[in-house]
Design a protein that fits this description.
Two copies of one chain form a homodimer. Chain A is α/β, with parallel strands linked by helices and 432 residues long. Chain A is built from 13 helices and 17 strands. The first copy, chain A, folds into three domains: 152 residues, Rossmann fold; 161 residues, Dihydrodipicolinate Reductase, domain 2, CATH 3.30.360; 82 residues, ACT domain (Alpha-Beta Plaits, 2-Layer Sandwich).
C-alpha cells in the first residue's frame, strides 16, 4: 500500500485538532478504506509552545520549504489563514504539483479564481470543505451530491458570531452592544469583530459557494454587504410581532438573466427552518430543480468540526492519489459558457420591513404612504403604536415587492419630512 | 475521452426521471467534469407504454441480459425495487464486474451484507444514495463528509408518508384514519400502506444507515419496530400541551457496550429542529464526536429528488472508472473488529409519556404511582383532566428515565387495576 504523505502549514487551534483526529483515525482509514496516511512535516512560526497533542519533534519546523518543496509530500494542508503568506505557500505547493487542502475562506474569496486555475493547469486539486460551514459537508453536497441539479438559490446562515448575537438579542431582549460583549466574553466574537458583524466573513463564504454553484467568477466587490451593527432590539420585537425573525442571510440566486449575490439582515417567517437556527449554529438552505428544497445544519466553526472537514478533504484527495488518472481520460470539453452578470443591489426586488420614527401628528401615515405610492411601493400591513417618548411614535410598515432603487429614493424623501424624526430603518424580507 | 456506458433496469417513474436528467445534464458532465456518459440499454417488462421522455427505441429491451451481461456496460442501475428478481439482476451484474447503482432499500436491508461482500470480492462498487432520504445526500455525508467522525447517534424522520399523516393530525386535528385517507388521495400513501405506517420502510432505511455508521451487520429482525397506527389525536394534543410533537423516529445509537436500533413514535421537544420537519419532508439528525450536531433536511421521495441521487451515484462511479485503481494500492488491512451486540428493546432506557383511561375515582393516581414506584419508575409530571365521558378521565404522566422492561411490567400491572378502563398508551420520549 502506498503511503500518502501530508504536510501541514499552521499549527494553531485547527491544526492541532486536525493532528489529533489524524492520530486517532489513521488505523481506521487503513483498515476500512485502504488508505495509509503519514503526517511528515508541520510548519509553524512558533515551534516552542506545547500543543495538546503528542508529535514527533523532528517533523516540526519553521522552514516552509520542508512542506511545500519536499518531493515526498503529496498533500499540503494550509491552515495559516489570511491572504499572505498563505497564498504564496499554496501557489508554491501547486507549483510542485501537490494537492492542497485549505480552510482559508478570505483567500479563496479574494484569489480563488487564480488559485483554482493554476491548480487545474498543474493537474492537482484544491479542496476547501472547511472554508464554509465548519463540519457540515456543504461543499461536498453542492459539488457531488447535487451534481445533477442546477442550483437556483442558496440562503445561508454562515456566520455563527452574528447568529449568536441576533439570537441573544431576541431571546434575552438585550441590545446589540450587550450581545456583542457577551459573544466576545464567550470567545464567539473577536476583540475586533468587524469581519464578522459587518458581514465580510459571510460575503467571503457566499462568494465561494456561488462560484461552486454557478461555475463563474464572483468578484467580491460585486457582492452587496450589510452587517448587523444597526439592528435594534425594537426591530427584532416588531418583526417578532409580525411573525418573523431577523437573521443575517447570505443569499445567492440565479435568475434567467443574472445572478444576485448579497449579505444582509433579513426578515424570515418564524415557521421556516432557517428561523429556528439558533446561537452559533450555521445552516444552508438550497433550492434546486430536482431536489426541491434541502437544508444542511450544524456547527459552522470550532476546532473539531473544522478539523473534521479538513480530514474529509484529505481522504477525498488520498483516494484520488491512489487512483491516478489515465492520461486520455477526463479531458474536459473546452466550451466557454456565457457568464451571467451580477445584479447590483439597486435592481433587486424585495419586500421590506420599514420603521419610521414619526412625530405624533395626524396625517403622518398619509404623507408616508403618498411618497411610497409615488415610487410604486404598495403597503401590505401597518403597525402604529401609542406614544413612546416625547411625541415620537414608531410606525412599522411591511411592503409588497418593490425595487430597492425605488425604496431608497422613497426613504430619503420620507426622511426629509418634518414629521419624521430619525433616519428610517429598512430591512429586506425574504420568502425563502 | 472514454465513454462510460450505462444500463438501466426498471423504466418506471424513477427510471424515467433519471433518463430525463441524464439527457439534460450529459453535456454539462462532459464539459465540467470530463465525464462522458452514454445510456446504452434500458430493460423493462413493459416496452410499449410511452414514457414522458424521448429515447432511441433500439435501446429498449425486455431482455435483462442486454444490461447485465453486455461487456460494454460499465454501470448497471437497478430501479426495479423489491427483493426478486432485483437481487438476481444485481448479483449477475456484479458477477460480470459491473458497478451497480440502486435505490432498493428493502433489498439492501435484507441482503446488503451478501451484496456488498460479493461486490468487494469482485472489485466493484454498489452505490445507494437514493435508498434513503431521496435527494438528500445523506449516504455521501455519512460515508465521506463525516469520515473523520465516529458517529454516535442518528435520528431520522425517513418516512414521508408517516410524517405527512402525523403532521396532518397535528395541524388539522383529524384522526389517524382521516389523515391516512388524505395521504392516499394525494398519492403520498399506497393503497396498502402497511410498509410505511407499520414502520417497516423506516426500519429498512435505518438498517442501511446503521450498517454504514457502525460498520457491522444489522439483521432486520434485531430492529424494534412500532408504527403509527395507534397514535391517537388525544395523544398528539397532550404531547403538544406538554411542549412536544410526536414523530415516527428511526433511531440508531452506539453506546460503549452495544448498539440500539429502533423505529417508533417518539415525543420530541417542539423547539427541536426535527419537530419542525413537516409534511412529506425527511430529515436526519446526526450526533458525532467531532462535528457535534448536524441535520440534513429535504424531500425524501419523489421522481426527481430520487433521480438526482441516482445520477450523483453514477457520477461518483464514473469518476472511479476513469481512475482505475493501481493494483498495489488500497489493499485494506484485514483486521476483524469486534462487533457490538444489538440491544433488545427490553434493555433500552427512555423517558415515557403514558396515558391512562381511569375511572373517575379518588386514589387512582395513588395506585398508579405506587405501581410505577415499585418498578423504580419516577414521575416527572402529571396532567389530570376533568371528566370526559362516562366517568372516564385521562391521566397523562411523563416519567423520568426508566427501563423499557420495567415500564412494560408496570403497565401490564396497571392495566389490571379495576379503576383503569382501556389499555394504557406509552410513547417514548427522546432528548435528541
Amino acid at each position: 500500500m502506498r503511503v500518502i504523505n501530508l504536510g501541514l502549514i499552521g499549527f494553531g487551534t485547527i491544526g492541532t485538532g486536525m493532528v489529533k483526529v489524524l492520530k486517532e483515525r489513521i488505523p481506521f482509514f487503513e483498515r476500512e478504506l485502504g488508505i495509509k496516511l503519514s503526517l511528515t512535516a508541520i510548519c509553524d512560526k512558533d515551534i516552542l509552545t506545547r500543543r495538546k497533542v503528542e508529535i514527533d519533534k523532528d517533523i516540526l519546523t519553521q522552514d516552509v520549504s520542508r512542506v511545500v518543496d519536499d518531493p515526498q509530500i503529496d498533500i499540503v494542508i494550509e491552515l495559516v489563514g489570511g491572504l499572505h503568506p498563505a497564498k504564496e505557500f499554496i501557489l508554491r505547493a501547486l507549483k510542485n504539483k501537490k494537492h492542497v487542502v485549505t480552510a482559508n475562506k478570505a483567500l479563496l474569496a479574494e484569489c480563488g479564481e487564480e488559485i483554482f486555475k493554476y491548480a487545474e493547469q498543474q493537474g492537482v486539486d484544491v479542496y476547501f470543505e472547511a472554508s464554509v460551514g465548519g463540519g457540515i459537508p456543504i461543499i461536498e453536497a453542492l459539488r457531488e451530491g447535487f451534481v445533477a441539479n442546477k442550483i437556483e438559490k442558496i440562503y445561508g446562515i454562515i456566520n455563527g458570531t452574528c447568529n449568536y448575537i441576533l439570537t441573544q438579542m431576541s431571546d434575552k431582549g438585550c441590545a446589540f452592544r450587550v450581545a456583542l460583549k457577551d459573544a466576545q466574553d464567550r470567545g464567539y466574537a473577536e476583540k475586533n469583530p468587524g469581519l464578522d458583524i459587518n458581514g465580510i466573513d459571510s460575503a467571503h463564504k457566499i462568494a465561494i459557494l456561488s462560484r461552486l454553484c454557478f461555475k463563474q467568477k464572483i468578484p467580491l466587490e460585486k457582492i452587496f454587504i450589510e452587517g448587523i451593527r444597526n439592528i435594534s432590539l425594537s426591530d427584532i420585537r416588531y418583526a417578532d410581532e409580525l411573525g418573523y425573525s431577523i437573521k443575517l442571510l447570505a443569499i445567492a440566486k440565479r435568475t434567467s438573466s443574472n445572478l444576485q449575490i448579497r449579505v444582509h439582515p433579513t426578515l424570515l417567517p418564524k415557521d421556516h427552518l432557517l428561523s429556528n437556527v439558533q446561537g452559533v449554529f450555521n445552516a444552508l438552505f438550497v433550492n434546486a430543480a430536482l431536489i426541491g428544497q434541502a437544508l444542511f445544519f450544524g456547527q459552522g466553526a470550532g476546532q473539531m468540526p473544522t478539523a473534521s472537514a479538513v480530514v474529509s478533504d484529505i481522504i477525498f484527495l488520498a483516494e484520488k492519489i491512489q487512483r491516478p488518472l489515465v492520461a486520455d481520460n477526463a479531458k474536459k470539453t473546452k466550451i466557454k459558457i456565457k457568464e451571467k452578470p451580477i445584479c447590483t443591489i439597486d435592481d433587486i426586488e424585495s419586500r421590506y420591513y420599514i420603521r419610521f420614527s414619526a412625530l405624533d401628528k395626524p396625517a403622518v401615515l398619509a404623507k408616508v404612504s403618498a411618497i411610497l405610492g409615488k415610487y410604486g411601493i404598495s403597503i401590505f400591513s401597518v403597525i402604529q403604536k401609542g406614544r413612546r417618548q416625547a411625541h415620537i411614535v414608531p410606525v412599522v410598515i411591511m411592503t409588497h415587492e418593490a425595487k430597492e432603487k425605488n425604496m431608497r429614493k422613497a426613504l430619503s424623501e420620507i426622511d426629509m419630512l418634518t414629521v419624521i424624526k430619525n433616519k428610517s430603518v429598512a430591512i429586506r424580507v425574504e420568502r425563502v
